[in-house]
Write a structure and sequence with these properties.
By secondary structure, this protein is mainly β. The chain is built from three helices and twelve strands. The longest helix is centred in the N-terminal third of the chain and has 4 residues. The relative contact order is 0.16.
Length: 161
């Protein structure tokens, strides 16, 4: 089973064993569902309840009923089974994109060095092409095609880049 990081537990909330997860994962609605299993330290836990509160994903876990029972989970990374995400052909995880080759419409080749958020909704690709670094918004007209099979991204390079 391949696991993908979906967030990090930052604290507890209240005395009923609710945990607060900080997550920027793009498909949270598939992960944080009652009955799904989250992984922390090679142990899985079933989600009993879920809600969003002030930008955090709030979860209670089955068989944990108070704050003292979940304190051992604080500051742990939270993972989910990648196969259960059921990604379509157009959906690609950021960690998978890092291994993709970048091709430009002019025939240049490059690689993705990093993916980061300039804002909560603006994902940026840091690409290295012919000894130059360029930054391209992931959801821009410059990104023409993402081919998961070939592990390639086709971009239209603007003049001056």
């Amino acid at each position: 089973m391949e696991k993908v990081k979906v967030g990090k537990i930052v604290s507890t909330h209240g005395i009923q064993g609710e945990i607060k997860i900080l997550s920027q994962f793009p498909w949270k609605e598939r992960v944080f569902q009652v009955g799904n299993r989250l992984w922390m330290d090679d142990q899985n836990y079933e989600i009993k309840t879920y809600r969003v509160h002030k930008g955090y994903d709030m979860v209670t876990l089955d068989h944990y009923h108070n704050i003292n029972e979940v304190l051992f989970l604080m500051k742990k990374d939270v993972y989910f089974d990648k196969a259960e995400l059921n990604l379509t052909d157009e959906e690609v995880l950021d960690e998978d994109l890092i291994s993709f080759e970048v091709l430009t419409t002019e025939g240049k080749r490059g690689i993705i060095k990093e993916i980061f958020f300039a804002s909560p909704t603006n994902k940026i690709l840091r690409i290295w092409i012919e000894k130059k670094e360029i930054l391209i918004p992931m959801f821009s007209p410059m990104v023409k095609k993402i081919d998961k099979e070939k592990k390639e991204i086709l971009i239209e390079q603007m003049k001056g880049l």
